[in-house]
Amino acid sequence: MVRRAYSIVAYVAFLGVFLYTIGFLANSVVPKGVDDGTVLPAWQAILIDVALLGLFAVQHSVMARPAFKRWWTRYVPASVERSTYVLAASAAVALLLWQWKPLPDPVWSVDPQWARATLWALYLFGWAFLVLSTFGLGHFDLFGLRRGEQRFREPVLYKVIRHPIMVGFLIAFWAVPDMSVGRLLFAGAASAYILVGVRLEEHDLKRELGEPYERYLDRTPRFVPGLKGKVTGASTTARP
Ligand SMILES: C[S@@+](CC[C@H](N)C(=O)[O-])C[C@H]1O[C@@H](n2cnc3c(N)ncnc32)[C@H](O)[C@@H]1O
């Protein structure tokens, strides 16, 4: 009962932070957007923002490593491991949203109304696409509400690319009509983290899921549909 309540609290925390982030990066609806707040000297703002992004990256990657999971499930019951991970990630993002220092100088600003509307539509599409993708992998397992077994899955979007959730984030980070220096720092650093993070994830999944995932790596591109040819028996068996 207590565990159930804990996992619901973690999920609600994630949902709150997630929805706030959509408004934060759009500079609308929420009280403090990415370009709002006290403007500090640029070097100070950059130091603080990079530290906040770094904290999230360390939390997210270290706590996801199998060795770390083995170690801390000696202290945290395995049944709440995922919820604790979700809670820690939500706390790291909440801290970032709260303490983020703006660098509001414009980098680009798109003028024609139709282009602005298209970019906003793409922005919302990115968020919707990533939410949809989570359901393919088991939304409630991913966010700690249910404890499913770790097994290889290849739902529809994952047949086309290996990382649709990350593609959704990348679209949402870059599809923006008004790009400030601060927003660019966020998009650049978060994108770099995604490029590293997916490699770490693939490395772990190869070990955990074995051959089905190895074959999957061979036949399915990372981010861009069609970049790699469809699998042939030869490409799979040629792998040492
Ligand atoms: C936040 S999700 C991101 C998944 C993927 N990188 C993406 O962008 O869609 C991370 C979790 O998905 C799991 N995962 C990723 N690909 C998977 C697959 N094909 N089958 C099963 N689990 C997978 C990983 O083990 C990890 O726990």
UniProtKB/TrEMBL annotation:
Keyword Transit peptide appears in the UniProt entry: no
Name assigned to this protein: methanethiol S-methyltransferase
GO cellular component, one term: membrane
Domain of life: Bacteria
Domain NnrU residues, every copy: 51-197
Top enzyme category: transferase
Keyword tRNA processing on entry: no
The reaction(s) this protein catalyses: methanethiol + S-adenosyl-L-methionine = dimethyl sulfide + S-adenosyl-L-homocysteine + H(+)
InterPro entries xrefs: MddA, NnrU_dom, Nurim-like
